[in-house]
Task: inverse folding
């Protein structure tokens, strides 16, 4: 299993390396920063008159991912061929909090405005991928973050109170 994850990570890193372009990096870096503290998602929640709902879901997502990071203690990537495009991160790599919050927010936003699901899902996928592209996460970190985000969204939408 460990070897499969390593191969998955290596393939994703290789793909990110081949995709790197100056013009794309100029767009991806500001976009990935919109994921800090769920800024983009709270803003979208505000547009839909649901900022508190999104903010509470994000708080739960941050709590879960930060707890897992402290237990997992996976170091951030130190690539030689994929230069980090944003500053050094102070927390561990596994799981990606940006990917988790994005997946959870996309699902909750879909429950609010279902016809916009392709937009919400697209933004979430782009946010998760951006974390690999900028060199601060392995692909498996992003995949685990998405899984955690989906679980948290399911709990939120089912009425569970975990906060």
Result:
């Amino acid at each position: 299993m460990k070897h499969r994850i390593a191969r998955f990570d290596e393939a994703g890193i290789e793909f990110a390396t081949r995709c790197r372009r100056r013009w794309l990096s100029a767009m991806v870096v500001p976009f990935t920063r919109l994921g800090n503290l769920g800024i983009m998602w709270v803003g979208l929640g505000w547009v839909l008159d649901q900022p508190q709902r999104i903010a509470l879901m994000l708080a739960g997502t941050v709590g879960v991912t930060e707890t897992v990071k402290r237990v997992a203690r996976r170091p951030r990537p130190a690539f030689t061929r994929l230069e980090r495009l944003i500053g050094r991160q102070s927390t561990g790599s596994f799981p990606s909090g940006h990917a988790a919050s994005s997946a959870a927010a996309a699902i909750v936003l879909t429950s609010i405005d279902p016809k916009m699901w392709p937009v919400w899902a697209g933004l979430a996928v782009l946010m998760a991928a951006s974390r690999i592209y900028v060199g601060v996460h392995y692909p498996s970190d992003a995949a685990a973050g998405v899984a955690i985000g989906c679980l948290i969204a399911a709990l939120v939408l089912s009425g569970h109170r975990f906060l």
Observations:
- The chain has a mean pLDDT of 90.
- The chain has seven helices and no strands.
- The CA atoms of residues 42 and 55 lie 6 Å apart.
